Amino acid sequence: MTRLADTVDRLLGVCERVFHALANACLAIMLALNIANILVRGLSDRGIVWVFPWTMVLFVWMSFFGFFVLYRKNRDITVDFLIDRLGPSGKLVARLLVNAIVLVLMTVMLWHAPRVIAQQTGAIEMVFFLGMEIERYALSVPLFTSCALIFITFCVDTVQALMGRPQPAHHVIGDM
Fold this sequence. Notes:
Layout: H1 2-44, H2 51-72, H3 87-119, E1 123-129, E2 132-135, H4 141-162
Antiparallel strand pairs: 1-2
């Protein structure tokens, strides 16, 4: 079981790096598009009409790709004052409780994913890629992918906690 947990953890590390690169790419493209729009507007008094819709799409994608990365890198907001004073047994209970809460929340998110995606019909106005309009559901795919990866991350951590293993360095309660 330990070997499987380690393998899954390594795969999650690869996903983290990919999602981090995707979030950075979204930010870089937004920046480049908006600089180009400002330059064109300054030179011709006309902006590029599709820059704003693409900026919105890229911002949503950046946020949702970053959602998993934040949890994986332990950059989420935690309140450690109480947990640090609980001792080893209390820290284990707190770790399992936090994991259970996150697993329940991600389960709820993933449970509703098919219905949410089905309700997001139609194309996003002025957002084309390779000559085709991007459908609205494409906005939420990175969110639900991040939720699935967070779910797997916390499943692995729960197994590791029950086996007596310390939290990996990339996700430690009380280490901010």
